[in-house]
Q: What sequence folds into this?
C-alpha cells in the first residue's frame, strides 16, 4: 500500500527494465516488482498482503494498478476489494508527480485521489533551524543559474 505519511523514511526509489518496474520504499525497504504490459491480475481468490500490481504506460505516465489485497493488508479500514491506482509522471528532469487513487465502493461512496508533491529529503537539520539557510542558499544558486542563461 502506498505510504501517505510524509517525513521520516517515506521516500521511493524507482528502477525500470523493459518489462518491469521496481518501486523500493525506504521504510522497511519494501520492494514491489511490477510487470509492465504483462499478464493480467491473477484470479481474485489469490490474495496477497501487498496486493498484486500491474503496470502500463499511458504516454509519459507509468500507471500501476494494484488489486487482490488480503484482509491483512487493510488500509484505513478499507475492504480487501480496494483497488489502488498510482500514476508516476515525470514533470521535470529530477521531479516526479505522484498521484494515488483509492477505490473501494464498500468503504467509500466514491474514489478519492491524492497527489504527493515533490519533497525535500528528510534529515535532521539542527532542530530544523538550518533549513531556512539551506533553502535560501539553494534559491540563490537557482537565481544565478537563471541569470547566466539570459543573453
A:
Amino acid at each position: 500500500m502506498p505510504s501517505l505519511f510524509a517525513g521520516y523514511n517515506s521516500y521511493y526509489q524507482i528502477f525500470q527494465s523493459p518489462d518491469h518496474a521496481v518501486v523500493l520504499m525506504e521504510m522497511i525497504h519494501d520492494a514491489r516488482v511490477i510487470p509492465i504490459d504483462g499478464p493480467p491480475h491473477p484470479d481474485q481468490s489469490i490474495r496477497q498482503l501487498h496486493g498484486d500490481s500491474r503496470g502500463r504506460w499511458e504516454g509519459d505516465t507509468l500507471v500501476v494498478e494494484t488489486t487482490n489485497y488480503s484482509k491483512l493488508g487493510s488500509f484505513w479500514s478499507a475492504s480487501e476489494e480496494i483497488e489502488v491506482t498510482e500514476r508516476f509522471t515525470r514533470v521535470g528532469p529530477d521531479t516526479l508527480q505522484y498521484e494515488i487513487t483509492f477505490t473501494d465502493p464498500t468503504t467509500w461512496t466514491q474514489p478519492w485521489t491524492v497527489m504527493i508533491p515533490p519533497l525535500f529529503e528528510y534529515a535532521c537539520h539542527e532542530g530544523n533551524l538550518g533549513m531556512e539557510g539551506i533553502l535560501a542558499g539553494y534559491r540563490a544558486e537557482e537565481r544565478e543559474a537563471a541569470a547566466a542563461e539570459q543573453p
Remarks:
- The radius of gyration is 19 Å.
- Residues 123-151 form one domain.
- The chain has two domains: 12-119, 123-151.
- The chain is about 15% helix and 35% strand.
